[in-house]
Design a protein that fits this description.
Strand content: 15-25%
Mean pLDDT: 90
Strand order of the largest sheet: 11-10-14-15-17-16-18-19-22-23-24
Oligomer: single chain
Distance between the termini: 8 Å
Number of strands: 31
Number of helices: 21
Low-confidence stretches: 1-28, 709-751
C-alpha cells in the first residue's frame, strides 16, 4: 500500500472512531444567522447601549444572545416575526464588545460593537480645546441630566405657552397629524447633552400615558425634522440648543431634533457637526423608536451644515431643504474678496493712469455687484473667521485672553482661525511654508485650504473688453493675498498638497459625490431673487455644477427661484418625495429612486415673470471671482494646475512691455489651466474618521456579523482537540521522512 492510500485509510479510521463522516464534516453551509445594530453603525455606538436585531435564515427556537461570551442579554430581545428578533442591549463596556447570537443547532453570529463615551469623541478625533460649558454642567465634559418640559398651543392665541401635565389649561388646541390622528397640541421637549453640547428633541406628547422605544409617543409619525442654524463660528462653547418648536413639522406629527454642534454659528467643524447629529439620532432611535426618514431645513450656515454632512456622512440625512444656499464654507469668496477689496480700496498702489470704477470692479469679481464682496468683508465680517487673533465668535478671546495667540509675544498661544479650529481635519503646514511664529514654536499651524498662485483675476473681463490690459496687469501684479496671520501679504498664497487633499476628502469642499443619495430642494438667495448680497443665487448653480461633474446629473436637486420661489411648499414636497422613495421596494440604487420617484411639484421653477429666459436673466446666476478668472462656476478648485504664461493667449488684448513684465513677475511658475482638475482635487470620502489624526481615514462599509458553525451536538468538542494528534499520527504512519543530510530539501518517499 503506498503512502497516500495508507494516510487516508488512517484518517477514515479516526473519523469513524469519532462518529464523524467526511460527508458530514464538509457539508457546505446554507443561509446563515445575522446579527446587526440598527440605531447606528456597530463601530460608532455611544452611550453604552445599542438597538440590535437577530435575523434567522429559517424559524428556529433556542436563541441565546451573549455579550463577551458570558453576559446573557437574551431577555432584552422580543420576537417580531418567526425569523426576526430585536432588543436593546445595554451595559456595553467602553471599547469593543463581542455580541454573540447562538441557536441550539450550533449556529452562531458574532458582531463586535464598539462603544464610545456619550460625551465623545466617536470619530471626530481629539476634541477641540479649550471648551467652555454653560452653567449647571456636572463636569468639564459638560455632562448634564436630560430635562423634560412641555409647551402647548393655545386655541385662543394660536401661540405656544408653558404646559403643566398635572394641571392642563382649558385652551389647549388640537392638531391632526399626517397619519390622521387628532390629538391635543401638546409638545414634550427633551434637552440634554451629548458630545459636550446640548441637543433638543420635541414631539407631540401630553405626558398622560408612559411610552418606551417599542410603543413610542402615540402621535409620532416616526419621521424627523432637523433644524440647522446659520453663520460660521469657532466659538469653543457648549452652546444652548437651537429652537426645536417648529410648528409646521410638529403639527403633522414629526419629531423635531437639533444639536448645538450642528449650528454653524457655534461650531463650524464638519466632523464634529456630523458626529453630534449621529449621536443625537442614535439616542432618538433608542429612546423614541424607529425612524422612517429624516430631512431638515437650513439657510446660509444651515445650508452649509446640512449639505456638507449629507454628502460626507451618507445615511444620516435623507433630504435637505436649503435657502440662501452655500454648498460649503465659501472660503474662496471670503479670501478672494478680501484680497480684491484691499487692492481696489487703496488707489495709492495703482499704476499711474489706472483707475477702477465700480462697474469694472464688479466685472473682476464676476458678481452682479461689488456689494457682495463688501457685504462679506464690511457688513458680516466673515472673512475674520480666518483671523487667528479673533476668529468669529471665539469665546477664548473673552474667557481666557492670556491664552490667545500673538505672533510676537505668544506664538504658541491658541489661534481662533477656522483652520486651527479644524486641526482635527487639516494637517500642519509643511516646514517650507513656516512663518517666523511657526519657526519659533517648532511646528506648523493647521493648514489653510486657500491658494491663489497662477490665478488671473479678471481674465473674463479682459477677454470681454470690460477692463484694459494695464488694469489686468496691475491688479494681478499687486493683489497679493491674506497671509496665514491675516496680514496683507504682497505675494500670492500657496497651500500644500496634504491640506488640499484633506479639504476634499473630508467634504469641507463639498464635491457632492455623496449627495446623489439625498433629495435636495434648493431655493437660492436670502431675499427672493437675490444677486447682490452674500447669499447670491450663484452658489446654487455652483452646487449643480459639482453634482453634474461627479455624479453625471443633478436630477435629485430641484431649484425654485425668482420672486415667488421661496414661498412654495418645500416641506410638503420633500415629505411626498421621501414617502415615494420609502414605498419604492424595487431592488435598484437609491439614487435611481430619487430620480424616478419625484412628485409632480419637484421640478425646476423660475417664478417671475415666466419660467423661461426672462426669469433666468433676472434671477439666474451671476458668477464669482474664480469664474471671472476663467474657472468653472462650480468654484471648487482651490489650487489650479499651471500652464505657461503666453502673450499670444491674450489676443486681442495688447500689453505694453512693462505691463507684460509685471505679469511675468506675478506668475513666475505659470497661470491656471482650467482644462484640468485642481491640485489634489478628489471626491469626498464617505464616513471619514479622525481618530488617528488629521487627514482622516474612511471607515468603509458598516461592520457585519461573522458566522461560526459549532460542532454537531453529538460530537464532544474535546474530540476535535484529540483529532489533531491523531491526524498527525496517521500522517507519520503513511509517510517516511528522510532527514536531509546536506543542503537538500525535505522530501517524502514512497515504499
Amino acid at each position: 500500500m503506498n503512502a497516500p492510500v495508507r494516510f487516508f485509510a488512517a484518517l477514515l479510521l479516526i473519523l469513524a472512531g469519532l462518529g464523524v463522516s467526511p460527508a458530514h464534516a464538509s457539508t457546505p453551509p446554507g443561509p446563515s444567522i445575522e446579527l446587526r445594530t440598527l440605531s447606528n453603525r456597530a463601530d460608532l455606538i455611544s452611550g453604552g447601549d445599542a438597538l440590535m436585531e437577530v435575523a434567522l435564515p429559517a424559524p428556529a427556537t433556542g436563541l441565546k444572545v451573549l455579550v463577551d461570551g458570558s453576559r446573557d442579554v437574551t431577555s432584552a430581545f422580543r420576537q417580531l416575526d418567526p425569523q426576526h428578533y430585536r432588543g436593546m442591549v445595554d451595559g456595553l463596556a467602553m471599547g469593543a464588545n463581542v455580541v454573540t447570537a447562538r441557536l441550539t443547532d450550533g449556529q452562531e453570529a458574532r458582531l463586535t460593537v464598539v462603544n464610545h463615551a456619550s460625551q465623545g469623541p466617536v470619530f471626530s478625533g481629539p476634541q477641540i480645546q479649550p471648551w467652555y460649558c454653560l452653567p449647571g454642567a456636572l463636569d468639564a465634559q459638560c455632562s448634564r441630566p436630560a430635562v423634560y418640559t412641555y409647551q402647548y398651543k393655545s386655541s385662543v392665541t394660536g401661540k405656544f405657552a408653558a404646559y403643566d401635565p398635572s394641571s392642563p389649561p382649558s385652551d389647549v388646541a388640537t392638531t391632526t397629524t399626517d397619519q390622521g390622528k387628532t390629538v391635543p397640541y401638546v409638545v414634550r421637549i427633551e434637552n440634554g447633552n451629548l458630545d459636550r453640547a446640548q441637543y433638543g428633541i420635541a414631539v407631540l406628547y401630553d405626558g398622560s400615558a408612559p411610552f418606551d422605544r417599542w410603543t413610542g409617543p402615540p402621535a409620532w409619525n416616526h419621521k424627523v425634522y432637523e433644524w440647522y442654524g446659520a453663520g460660521c463660528s469657532t466659538s469653543h462653547v457648549e452652546a444652548p440648543t437651537p429652537d426645536v418648536m417648529q410648528d409646521n413639522a410638529l403639527a403633522k406629527g414629526f419629531a423635531v431634533m437639533s444639536t448645538a454642534l450642528s449650528d454653524n454659528d457655534y461650531n463650524c467643524n464638519i466632523a464634529v457637526q456630523a458626529e453630534s447629529i449621529m449621536m443625537a439620532k442614535e439616542h432618538l432611535i433608542e429612546t423614541y423608536g424607529d425612524v422612517r426618514y429624516l430631512f431638515g431645513y437650513g439657510c446660509s450656515g444651515g445650508s452649509i451644515a446640512s449639505l456638507q454632512i449629507a454628502n460626507a456622512y451618507p445615511g444620516l440625512i435623507d433630504g435637505v431643504m436649503v435657502y440662501c444656499t452655500m454648498p460649503d464654507v465659501p472660503t474662496l469668496d471670503l479670501l478672494d474678496c478680501t484680497a480684491l477689496l484691499r487692492y481696489f480700496e487703496d488707489p495709492r498702489v495703482w499704476k499711474p493712469g489706472v483707475v477702477w470704477p465700480d462697474n469694472q470692479q464688479a466685472n473682476v469679481t464676476g458678481m452682479q455687484s461689488t456689494s457682495v464682496c463688501h457685504a462679506w468683508v464690511e457688513a458680516y465680517h466673515y472673512p475674520e473667521v480666518f483671523n487667528p487673533k479673533t476668529g468669529v465668535g471665539c469665546q477664548v478671546t473673552t474667557n481666557e485672553p492670556a491664552k490667545m495667540y500673538d505672533p510676537v509675544t505668544n506664538p504658541g498661544g491658541l489661534r481662533c482661525s477656522l483652520q486651527d479650529y479644524m486641526a482635527n481635519v487639516f494637517p500642519e503646514r509643511p516646514k517650507s511654508q513656516w512663518s517666523d511664529a511657526e519657526k519659533a514654536i517648532g511646528h506648523g499651524f493647521a493648514g489653510r485650504p486657500y491658494d491663489n498662485v497662477g490665478l488671473m483675476y479678471g481674465l473674463r473681463a479682459l477677454q470681454a473688453g470690460q477692463i484694459s490690459a494695464a488694469q489686468f496687469a496691475d491688479l494681478n501684479a499687486k493683489v497679493g493675498a491674506p497671509s496665514i496671520d491675516w496680514t496683507n501679504q504682497p505675494t500670492r498664497v500657496e497651500s500644500d498638497p496634504a491640506t488640499l487633499a484633506a479639504a476634499y476628502r473630508s467634504g469641507f469642499v463639498d464635491e457632492g459625490n455623496g449627495l446623489d443619495q439625498v433629495a435636495i430642494i434648493d431655493t437660492p438667495g436670502y431675499i427672493p431673487g437675490d444677486r447682490y448680497e452674500i447669499h447670491d443665487n450663484t452658489k446654487s448653480w455652483a452646487l449643480r455644477a459639482r453634482l453634474d461633474h461627479f455624479n453625471g446629473n443633478h436630477d435629485n436637486q430641484i431649484l425654485w427661484y425668482g420672486l415667488e420661489g421661496r414661498f412654495q411648499d418645500n416641506f410638503g414636497t420633500m415629505d411626498a418625495w421621501l414617502t415615494n422613495v420609502e414605498s419604492d421596494h424595487r431592488d435598484i440604487p437609491r439614487a435611481q429612486k430619487l430620480r424616478e420617484d419625484k412628485p409632480a411639484a419637484a421640478k425646476d421653477q423660475c417664478y417671475y415673470p415666466d419660467n423661461g429666459p426672462v426669469c433666468d436673466a433676472a434671477f439666474g446666476p451671476a458668477g464669482n471671482p474664480r469664474w471671472a478668472a476663467g474657472g468653472s462656476i462650480a468654484q471648487d478648485v482651490i489650487k489650479c494646475q499651471l500652464k505657461p504664461l503666453v502673450r499670444s493667449d491674450f489676443a486681442p488684448a495688447v500689453f505694453a512691455d512693462d505691463d507684460w513684465a509685471a505679469l511675468q513677475a506675478a506668475f513666475p511658475t505659470g497661470v491656471c489651466d482650467w482644462t484640468k482638475d485642481g491640485v489634489s482635487q478628489q471626491p469626498t470620502v464617505a464616513w471619514q474618521s479622525y481618530e488617528n489624526g488629521p487627514g482622516g481615514v474612511g471607515l468603509g462599509e458598516p461592520p457585519t456579523s461573522g458566522t461560526v458553525a459549532d460542532p454537531p451536538a453529538d460530537v464532544p468538542e474535546a474530540s476535535y482537540v484529540l483529532l489533531l494528534p491523531l491526524l498527525a499520527a496517521g500522517l507519520l504512519a503513511g509517510l517516511r521522512i528522510r532527514r536531509p543530510t546536506d543542503r537538500q530539501s525535505i522530501v517524502a518517499t514512497t515504499s
